[in-house]
Amino acid sequence: MVGAAALCLASCAEFLNRPSEDSYNTANFYLNDEQCLQGVNYLYNSPWYDFQRGFIKVGEVMSGNMYMGSCPYLTFTTNATDVDLMNMSYSLWAVNGHANTVIKNIVASEGPSQAIKNQAIGEALTLKALAYFFMVRTFGEVPIIHDNTSVIKDGTYNDVYKVKKENVYDYIIYTLETAMELLPKKTSGWDNRIDYYCAEGLLAKVYLTKAGISGSLNNEDLTKAAQYAKDVIDHSGRSLTPKYSDVFRLAPATYNQTGEPMISWMWAAERNPWTQQNTLQSDLGMVGFSETGDLWGGWGGPSYDLMLAFGTDPLKSPAERKLVDLDSRRHATIMMAGDKYDYFWQDKGGFDFLRFIYDAEYGKGYETGTFQGPCGGQNVKHLYGDTYDHEQATGIKPGNMCYQLPTHILRLSDVYLIYAEASLLTGNSAAALEYVNKVRERAYGSNYETHGKLTSVTWEDIWKERRLELAGEGDRWYDFVRRSYYDINGAMSEILAQKRNAVNSYGTVAEKYWKDGEWTVDPAVTNYDEVTPKPNVSESIFTLPFPQEDIVNNPHLLEDAQEVDVRATYPYNF
């Protein structure tokens, strides 16, 4: 198992305290309630670490939300030897393996109260189900490893067979239902731990996804998705954080003030052991954005297509864009010319995007003098800012590729949109309209009544709303996958219609604007790249290949999947 030293973090000390994992067992740990919960804590970070790049490249680059040059995920040419694909697969299997081991240890423990044992097992089961949910939507048919100990003992780890996708979804549902039987129903005092309603929200999302797996939408699955989502909405006590951008900040009192984040990866600003820390700012932030010398993500960024989806065109002047740029989510997702941020670089009075690039004194000597964003913008989500910002929020200095910003995997706004979509598809358009508008009301703020409020709603409205609400959060590709189950031609057509290429010579326009205040675009020089050919889009793109090493070690992965009665074959007896 991954080794880990005990942590004590100022902003979430109790949550992230944990034992040294390479030395504890049921004889010397899990002796009381506190240790039982500590034994689960690392499941919220370390096993997920190597999924971070796949999380972005699959979820955002493949979906057309993000541009990353010649990245194979952009062109649908990812193969079985791709490093990020391998790390992603290994990470998801690690979550499953660690969760199984932790559950076995807790079941065998005698010191903790039964209520705390149930809670800890429920948390581990939910994270295990989440790992399978990512696996089935990424790789399609996968094996089920229900008990690592018995598989290793029998020497059959590389002799397992894939099971049908329907069975994998059944296993995820069974696992979440079991978790819900064990978890407490918390309605206040959000502490980032998974509770009943968090598992139920994930279950609603699983049912919405599973609904199309037969090739057409299943009304029973849609009804369950709506019922579970509405129970979360009505009874969890959670509500939307009033200001959208606050959801993605560092301080718990800010991002979790209303309980909107439901399942999150909770990172630590510690490198010992490596894997417990967030490193996404390095991959997504501009060179020089922080003092730690670990940023290289500025040469990628939000896609031109995503900007247009928000109704804003980077080729238009900031003054012209301001007239139509009324959705606050755009500013919190995509950094564009003219943008400023009060929550970044607070020691400098806020972050001024173009000033950072072109003003040497303001840019702390890290300014590049070159506009990095290939499509006219930069990422905002997953960035914490500079050292001062991190310290102000957490009391802890960040390190090189080492920071504490949580990564939200399931939020209440997602549950609202799950409820809206499932309701619309089962004939309740009034409920669908109500909850899409609740999401849009926050997004548009004072402009909601005049520009944000919908008077009717279609499936296409909800589909787009999901893109805008969750952009940058590793989710969009999986919406395409679930759509491909029952409308593969529609999914392919939308991807083919995307503007997935870069914008030529954008920096010349931005630099001139900074220096003399004039926004001048010569269409012959600064334009969207229409020359680079569209990627090859086929039905095969919706399933990524297994890593080559997995296939070499277990050739059964190339064979047909088996049908399994998961509840009879893989019982949970707690």
Structure description:
The structure is a single chain. By secondary structure, the protein is mostly helical. Among the domains are: 1-183 and 550-574, Serine Threonine Protein Phosphatase 5, Tetratricopeptide repeat (Alpha Horseshoe), CATH 1.25.40.390; 280-402, no CATH class. Helices cover 46% and strands 4% of the residues. It is built from 26 helices and eight strands. The chain has helices spanning 13-16, 33-41, 52-61, 72-75, 83-108, 114-139, 148-154, 165-182, 196-210, 219-235, 252-255, 280-284, 304-309, 318-322, 328-333, 353-358, 387-394, 412-425, 429-444, 448-452, 459-470, 476-486, 488-497, 506-516, 548-553, 566-569; strands at 66-67, 261-265, 301-302, 334-336, 340-341, 351-352, 377-379, 407-411. Helix 9 runs parallel beside helix 18. The relative contact order is 0.14. The model is unreliable at 1-16 (pLDDT under 50).
CATH class of the domain at 1-183 and 550-574: Mainly Alpha
Structural class designation: mainly alpha
CATH topology of the domain at 1-183 and 550-574: the name is Serine Threonine Protein Phosphatase 5, Tetratricopeptide repeat
Helical content class: 40-55%
Biggest sheet: strands, sense, closure? 2 strands, antiparallel
Oligomer: single chain
* Rough outline: globular
What descriptors fit this protein?
disordered N terminus, two-stranded antiparallel ribbon, Serine Threonine Protein Phosphatase 5, Tetratricopeptide repeat, 574 residues, mainly alpha
